[in-house]
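Page 42, continued from yesterday. The earlier attempt failed because a stray header line got pasted into the input along with the sequence. Redoing it now with the clean sequence only.
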Amino acid sequence: MLKADLIIADKILTNGINLFRLSASERKKALKLLEQMQKELIANLAYKELSTYSKAKTKTLLTQSNAIISDYYNKIQSGLDETLSGLAQQQVDKIGQILTDIGLSPSLPTQNMIQSIVSDALITGSPLSDWWTKQSEGLQFNFASQVRQSITQGETITQAIKRIAPIMDVSKRNAFALVNTAVQQVANDARLAPFKQNDNVIKGVEQLSTLDSHTSDICMAYSGAQWDLEGEPLPGTTLPFNGGPPRHVNCRSVLVPITKTYKELGIDIEEPAPGQRASDEGPISATITFDEFLKHKTVDEQDAMLGKGRAQLFRDGKITLRDLLDQSGNPLTLKELQKL
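This time it went through. Structure tokens are written below.
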């Protein structure tokens, strides 16, 4: 990596940790809605004793339940879409700021281009709206199956609620994974747009993967892979770009730009030594992981990114990288992110 690339990568990794905090904030909002939905479903189910439900009444109950589920998932999707629109703008502005900080005068995407980043976002090949529909319909099916079994077996309301609890837990986990992935998808797409817009100084992108015991095989293989701005592999890379990360649900990989060398820019200046990244504490490895990256930050920077309590646990070696990146105890709203 060139020095400029390393400075940019350092700033993008810092921003990436803040995005984990944003995901935590959005998961918290989704959880609140899902818990409200669960209470409403149970209240609707407990309106009468299950033994009194005829075939017609069961059908009516499930129709009402489907409407409740669909309504709440629409609320989750609507709230996340609003955040993602603001996130796309924030990420474009952030890249503009980073490029300006290294002495460039960047050209940035238009408002229409930024909005299309959200509307055109695909997660493993499917629109985000389709994923929410799939989750909503999946819960409707599973909820109906459990209710029918409960009625058929003459169970009590308490027994029926116990049946429902596990499928609600699954729906929460699925929603959390989709929120995480959507945030990463829009963020990576929003960063890629200004990279392409500034092809006079940026020639390609590189994938940086979070390397730990939970990193997927695919992201391990892709870590360090490079492509030009059209998605064609650069020398040393054979893997296809395929839209870039996220490459799977809950993917934590990011794209960083590859700037042109002085020679490629037509400037006769000696290039800096490769494989070094600039930081306040001195050069660090260009293949750094998030864990190593944080160790090179000051105590104040660690506290700001992780929260004082979690940062101290990190410094004491009492917190895993997976816990570190979850950020549930240190959420960040979009408005707070925009101020950083």
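Notes: Residues 272-286 have pLDDT under 50 and may be disordered.
Reminder to self: strip header lines before submitting.
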